[in-house]
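stage 2 :: seqdesign
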């Protein structure tokens, strides 16, 4: 009996709830074989602590603790600590709950079950869970499919949602793995290097994972927790201020006669020989008009500007981005140094500096 009387006091200030305290106390009674109502009442009043005992006296007043049964005391205290919640409010909270960013289907459903505890759905619980799952899910394609299929039960909707979520994550894992294998396989093939092309390939070369455009992290944008976040800078949804494109300072450089700035080797020059009225004309620079010229020039630009952050090049258009003026001009300087080293000239009247937005590739 000494062990039965050893139980901690109830201290609501430390985050304990009366319901959980009573659940543990009842298990304590069961473990020690205490079944008598009077003994339960005596142990409750002796271990609950002086402040809780005084509270019990106030709640059941004008009656005394020894005038009520154990069950009557616990019911009175339960009503004091946990008054009956409003069914309307509880249902409002239930129907307003949507799946949150980066929240799994299982966690979303578990939260819906918790919110339905005091909604008094009765036999209509499965229908309510089905409706909230379909209407509150964040995957729009899955939501459209569930609505089109007119799923009859909650179990069917949950099973399909879990299967879709699992398949999406597995497909993402497969894509990431296969991309790395493809890069290694491509790099093992040999090819003739073009002029000014100093890149090397190796079987050990690793794939650089693109940053998430929503937050800048090293993960896929489709699983980013900021997918439904509103940007504080442009007020648009889907990204945060740190990576906002509106906030990024931009410059655009345009090259002057880009193809003609690339020299060709002697073997290629022989293939580009033209028969003119004044005799044979051998071209020493890459001309317009041949099918491979764009890909050759794009490869040259990619190599020339490789490793520079915030720099994108499409043929002779170079876009430079920075989050601040200092960072931006530092990147502009690095690009100009690379182009100067490669002997590339710019068309000054078509270059744009110091703007928040530029038209690039028609956008």
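stage 2 :: out
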């Amino acid at each position: 009996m000494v062990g039965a009387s050893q139980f901690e006091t109830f201290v609501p200030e430390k985050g304990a709830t009366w319901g959980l305290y009573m659940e543990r106390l009842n298990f304590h009674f069961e473990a020690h074989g205490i079944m008598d109502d009077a003994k339960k009442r005596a142990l409750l009043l002796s271990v609950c602590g002086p402040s809780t005992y005084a509270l019990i006296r106030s709640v059941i007043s004008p009656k005394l603790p020894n005038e009520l049964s154990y069950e009557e005391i616990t019911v009175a205290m339960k009503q004091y600590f946990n008054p009956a919640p409003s069914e309307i409010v509880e249902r409002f909270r239930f129907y307003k709950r949507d799946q949150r960013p980066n929240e799994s289907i299982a966690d979303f459903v578990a939260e819906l079950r918790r919110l339905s505890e005091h909604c008094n759905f009765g036999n209509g619980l499965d229908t309510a869970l089905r409706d909230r799952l379909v209407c509150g899910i964040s995957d729009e394609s899955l939501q459209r499919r569930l609505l089109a299929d007119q799923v009859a039960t909650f179990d069917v909707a949950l099973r399909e949602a879990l299967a879709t979520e699992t398949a999406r994550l597995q497909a993402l894992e497969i894509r990431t793995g296969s991309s790395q294998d493809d890069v290694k396989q491509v790099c093992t093939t040999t090819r003739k290097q073009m002029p000014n092309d100093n890149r090397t390939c190796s079987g050990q070369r690793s794939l650089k994972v693109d940053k998430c455009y929503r937050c800048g992290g090293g993960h896929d944008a489709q699983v980013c927790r900021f997918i439904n976040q509103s940007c504080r800078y442009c007020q648009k949804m889907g990204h945060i201020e740190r990576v906002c494109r509106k906030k990024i300072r931009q410059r655009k450089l345009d090259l002057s006669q880009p193809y003609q700035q690339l020299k060709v080797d002697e073997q290629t020059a022989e293939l580009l020989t033209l028969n003119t009225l004044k005799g044979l004309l051998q071209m020493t620079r890459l001309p317009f008009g041949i099918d491979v010229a764009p890909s050759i020039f794009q490869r040259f630009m990619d190599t020339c500007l490789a490793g520079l952050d915030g720099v994108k090049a499409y043929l002779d258009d170079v876009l430079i981005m920075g989050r601040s003026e200092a960072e931006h001009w530092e990147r502009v300087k690095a690009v100009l140094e690379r182009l100067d080293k490669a002997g590339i000239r710019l068309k000054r009247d078509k270059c744009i500096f110091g703007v928040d937005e530029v038209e690039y590739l028609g956008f």
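stage 3 :: structure notes
- Residues 179-208 have pLDDT under 50 and may be disordered.
- Residues 209-247 form one domain.
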